[in-house]
Amino acid sequence: MASRGTVKASANFNASADAEVLHKAMKGLGTDEAAILQLVTARSNAQRQEIKAAYKTLFGKDLVNDLKGELGGTFETLIVALMTPPLTYDVTSLRNAIKGAGTDEKVLVEILASRTAQQVKDIVAAYRKEYDDDLEKDVCGDTSGHFKRLLVILLQANRQTGIQEGNIESDAQALFKAGEEKFGTDEQTFITILGNRSAQHLRKVFDAYMKMSGFEMEESIQKETSGSLKDLLLAVVKCARSVPAYFAETLYHAMKGAGTDDNTLIRVMVTRCEVDMLDIRAEFRKRFACSLHSMIKGDTGGDFRKTLLLLCGGDDA
């Protein structure tokens, strides 16, 4: 499948030449931020890893440490994120979400609801290798209730594949009985079905549920559940419908209103720029009164903005 990303590998790539450019940009008085951001966004993540290796070979120094020493603020966070391999980035994000002061549920929800089963398996293995800890155990120690149970289900990365024609009606019926028809919600039914069925199957279930109840699945979840569980169920449902649409919404809410959620903005732009940014932009344009490009432009500033706009690619005016 062709990549739907905006950031692509550079054709005539020379890791040592790039390492020289970055070294020069940081040498002497002042830093050439423009040179750094233009180079980094014009290379794929795999190429950036080669640049890091070449930099160490040429100069005997760690490129990321040098960048951290020269840059600051959100711009530094963004550039360092771009220099991190995708799997390491997800693993570190989860670790910080769990081990930081208070749990950052938003990060757990976003990563575990949106990644493929194979990606989740890789994350669990890499987490153990990096920290000698069990991700599931760490998540369980930090969460509770049905929120915890659904995270555990997602961490099994055992979703069914394909569509079980015979179960579409019965799944919709079970969800209807567990929610709209019941006084007090049977959360267990929600998390078992939404956590275990394939995306294609769930889309059919949502249609059947709508016919049966007169409600979109999301509306019922909004009404019937609350807190972190609600956020996770909604993320799972939205990702079953369309992962790019889920990220378009996530980006919109990160920038809407007073103050920007820079961490979410950085995380989504970095993790999706080589995956499905073109689709995210299209979904964004469809759903909101502006383009992703124009919203980033109006909501951020300086080198941080310049870098984000290069990751976004074009404008969909």
UniProtKB/TrEMBL annotation:
SUPFAM superfamilies: Annexin
Key words of the record: Annexin, Calcium, Calcium/phospholipid-binding, Repeat
PROSITE patterns named in the record: ANNEXIN_1, ANNEXIN_2
Stored InterPro entries: Annexin, Annexin_repeat, Annexin_repeat_CS, Annexin_sf, ANX5
Pfam families: Annexin (PF00191)
Keyword Calcium (UniProt): yes
Domain of life where this protein originates: Eukaryota
Family statement: Belongs to the annexin family.
UniProt remark on domains: A pair of annexin repeats may form one binding site for calcium and phospholipid.
Protein name: Annexin
Species name: Ameca splendens
Lineage, broadest ranks: Eukaryota, Metazoa, Chordata, Craniata, Vertebrata
